[in-house]
Design goal:
about 475 residues; alpha/beta; Urease, subunit C, domain 1; TIM Barrel; 2 domains; nine-stranded mixed β-sheet; binds zinc ion
Length: about 475
């Protein structure tokens, strides 16, 4: 309608937002870093990134923010996080449980004790924790009960994600009907994908989220793969955090898990395997050849005694060209959804284990948390870097904090000094969803009170108590 404010002065590009005079870590093709940079946004897209004066001269902004207090990075992509089940009972499982005890004696009874209302609270809490620590996009491990309810509340918060109710189909009980279980699991995947399609890069879309391990038949793997390939989606599944998975596949197929998945055509760029710690050399080579992604959850591995630092082949996966992406897993595994803490652990784990300081330098870890994660989420064309045309998903880290002073080596600082608690503001899809350390799209105080009230009831329904080595009076 020719409003002057929409078109701006002649010759200038009208934009909605200009942030100027910030440090900007672009993660673009040349990995440019600007000491005094500017970022311009219109709608959901970045329209310009560059030296502050150059960008400011070229645009007419509705809103201008002085970025001199900030380091801007792309939003982090958390490629494995349990948004239901665990955030709402964060950290109650004792930290001296091995993998089997953690999963079967604690997590599964806890999951079974929850209601759809608990799940929505849990998902909201997960989104708040992720956004406030700089994660703008996630891949869910798998909603347990009610995907629609979870999508509703996350849509209101405004985080980007790829999620789905998790599925498994293997008949474990003697009177289970294998064919019926498989048909039901495939039908569930098809329904979810039809209900929450990914075409057009919406904030939230459904994916095949397989529980993984030994719980899926070959027919389910093949169906999930075909659905993903036909719809431009990914598939996510847990695999080989523990030798139990290789033992199962060797006993039932004669092949290790990754080799068996290769045999049935399930590997490829659509697939993100979480953990993937207990691999052999052939499995590493197969993942590299097929472009299969691995989601490294270093905090979970360390706390859960999975053996990543002793048995893990992450340096070999990196050397072979496998896209290593990062995940934080569950709040009773790694316990924190802060990707910056996961970056710290990833950067240090193998330096120490192999006594080789050249392993996983900070810049490589930052690629894992941004570019590799975006590729794993099948969104490498839209997120993971700050470039014109990309979605405006970015984070403003607050330099007005001791861990950011002095600012000399911004990449070292991001990985080794700072953590998610220094995230001041976050934009997703051009919308400022965190401002001044608070999520703008939900009443945080109310949410925290609701979670505090619900958690003890879940623990009681699960028949558990909260152990502590010391008296809690
Ligand atoms: Zn998991």
């Amino acid at each position: 309608m020719g409003r002057v404010t929409d078109s701006g002065p002649p010759g200038l590009v009208p934009v909605d937002l200009l942030i100027r005079d910030a440090w900007i870590v672009t993660m673009d093709d040349e990995r440019r870093i600007f000491r005094s940079g500017a970022l311009a946004v219109t709608g959901d897209r970045i329209v310009a990134v560059g030296p502050s004066d150059d960008v400011a001269r070229a645009v007419s902004a509705k809103e201008t923010i002085d970025g001199s207090r900030f380091v801007l990075t792309p939003g982090f992509v958390n490629c494995h996080v349990h948004i239901t089940g665990e955030p709402i009972t964060r950290g109650y499982v004792p930290d001296d449980t091995d993998w089997r005890t953690n999963v079967f004696d604690w997590l599964i009874p806890t999951y079974m004790a929850q209601t759809p209302e608990d799940e929505r609270l849990s998902a909201q809490l997960a989104a708040v924790e992720m956004l406030r620590t700089g994660t703008t996009c996630f891949i869910e491990a798998g909603t347990i009960m009610d995907l629609s309810g979870v999508v509703d509340v996350l849509g209101a918060i405004g985080i980007r994600g790829r999620l789905g109710q998790w599925v498994q189909d293997r008949a474990f009980a003697p009177d289970d009907d294998q064919a019926a279980l498989t048909a039901a699991a495939i039908a569930r995947l098809e329904d979810q994908i039809a209900q929450f399609p990914a075409a057009g890069d919406p904030l939230l879309a459904a994916w095949p989220c397989l529980v993984g391990h030994n719980t899926a038949t070959d027919d389910l793997w093949r169906a999930a793969t075909a659905l993903a390939q036909a719809n431009g989606l990914g598939v996510t599944a847990h695999m080989s955090p523990d030798p139990a998975d290789p033992d199962f596949y060797l006993a039932t197929t004669g092949r290790r898990p990754i080799a068996h998945l290769a045999d049935i055509g399930a590997l490829g760029g659509h697939l993100s395997l979480t953990h993937a710690i207990h691999l052999d050399g052939e499995e590493v080579a197969l993942m590299a050849e097929t472009g299969t992604h691995v989601t490294h959850c270093p905090m979970t591995a360390m706390k859960g005694a999975y053996g990543a630092s002793t048995a893990g082949r992450f340096p070999e996966l990196q050397a072979a060209g496998v896209g290593i992406q990062l995940g934080t897993d569950g709040n009773n595994n790694g316990n924190s959804a802060d990707m910056m803490r996961a970056m710290y652990v990833m950067a240090g784990l193998f330096k120490d284990a192999r006594r080789d300081s050249a392993l996983f330098p900070a810049h490589q870890v930052l690629e894992a948390a941004t570019l590799n994660g975006a590729a794993g989420a099948r969104l490498g064309h839209a997120i993971g870097a700050l470039k014109p045309g990309m979605k405006a998903d970015f984070v403003a880290h607050d330099r007005d904090r001791p861990e950011w002073v002095p600012l000399l080596n911004v990449i070292n600082q991001l990985v080794w000094s700072a953590d998610g608690r220094g995230v001041h503001s976050v934009w997703v899809d051009g919308r400022r969803v965190v401002e001044g350390y608070r999520v703008t799209t939900i009443d945080e105080d109310r949410l925290f009170a609701q979670v505090e009230a619900a958690a003890p009831l879940i623990v009681a329904r699960a028949g558990k108590s909260v152990p502590c080595a010391w008296p809690v009076l």
